[in-house]
Amino acid sequence: MYIGEQLIAPTDARLRLSAQLGARGIVIDTRPAHEVIEADGTWNSEKVAALRRRIEGFGMRLDGMALDVGSLLLDSLRAPDKAKETAARLRQHIRAAAEGGVTMLKYTVAMVGITRTGVVEGRGGMQCSTFRAADYRPEADARFSYWGTVLPEDGSGGASPVDQHGAPETCGQVLAGTAGAISEADGWRSIAFLVSELLPTAEQVGVKLACHPHDPAYPPGGLNGVHHVLGSLDGMRRFVALAPDSPCHGFNFCQGTIAEMSTDPTATVLEAIRTFGPQKRIFMVHFRNITGGYLDFREAMPDEGTVDMAACIRAYREVGYEGILCPDHVPLSDLDPGRERFFAFALGYTKALLQAA
Q1: DSSP string across 148-161
Q2: What is the C-alpha to C-alpha distance for residues 52 and 32, in angstroms, rounded to an integer?
Q3: Judging by beta carbons within 10 Å of its beta carbon (0-12, 13-18, 19+), is residue 206 exposed, middle or buried?
Q4: Which of 6, 90, 107, 157 is 20 to 30 A removed from 32 (C-alpha atoms)?
Q5: pLDDT per residue over 190-231, tens digit each?
Q6: What are the chain's domains?
Q7: What is the value of pTM for the model shown?
C-alpha cells in the first residue's frame, strides 16, 4: 500500500508538492477531463499518454482518472437514446485510456450529488460538511451537497453551489426534485445499464472500472423520492454480483461512505474490507473518516473521527490490498482555502499508520 492524491487539473507546482509529501500515485479527478479531451468531446489517447508521462516525470505514477458518466444513469431511465449516445462516448474514453497507458477509471453512481444538509464547526473552527436525515430540506441540499467537483458552501462568502447547478463540473447531477422519483428498481436498472454498456469494453482493453458507492446511505423508503441502492453492504454485494467473474468490476472503496452506512462504522468498514478485499474488488481507497454514523454524521480529519483508522490499515494488509490510499473530503477552512495543508496532514497521518502497521 502507498499514499497518493486525487487532484483536479494539477499544475506542475502542485504535482511537485505531492511528490515532496511522499505521494507515489496520482488519480486525476478533473471532470470533465480537460487535460485529454478534444473539442468533439472524445478523449485523445496521445494526450492521456502525455499526462501519464508528465506525472511520471515527478517520480509518481498515474494510477487512474475520473470517468465522468454525466447524466447517463438518470438518462437511462428518462432519455434512453441520449443514454446510449453517452455510453458510446464513454466506451471511446475507456479505449483511449488504455491506449494511453491508464489501467483504472473511477466513476460515481450519484444522480443527485453527494447529499449534505449543512456545515458544522469542527476543531479549531474548521468547517465540516454534515448530513442529518432529520434536517433534510431541498434548499439545504442545493447549498451544502457536493455536485461533481463543486464543494459544499462553507459560509465564507465564496461562490455558492446553487449558482453552479448545471455547470459541466456538476457532472450531470441534479436536485432530487428535478430528477423525479427513483425507486429501488430504477436504481438497479440504471446501474445494470451502465455496467452492461461499459464493462465489456473495459474487459477487452484491460481497464478496471472503480465504482464509488452512493454517498450517503439514505433512510428506508428513500429521501425526497430517491433511493440509494448502493448505500449498504448488501447493495455492494449485489453490485459485485452483476459481473461476478470480471476482474475489471470493482470499487473506488470510499471508507467514509461505507462508515456512513452503519451505526457501528468501524465494524462495518472492517467487514467491507474483509468481504471485498479477498475478492480483489478494491481498486483504490478513499482513506477518510467521519464522526457519527448512519443518517447523522459530519466529515472529519482522519485522526479525530469515529472509525478506527489503524485497524483499517491492518485489515487492508490482512486481505492483501497493495494499492493507493487517497485522502478525501477533508474539512474546509478560510486558513487553508486550497485545503493543501489539510490534505498534507491527512497524507502524513496515513503514511505514519502504514509505517506503524
Answers
A1: TTBPPP-SSSS--G
A2: 17
A3: exposed
A4: 157
A5: 999 999 999 999 999 999 999 999 999 999 999 989 999 999
A6: 2-110+177-356 (3.20.20.150), 113-173 (no CATH)
A7: 0.97
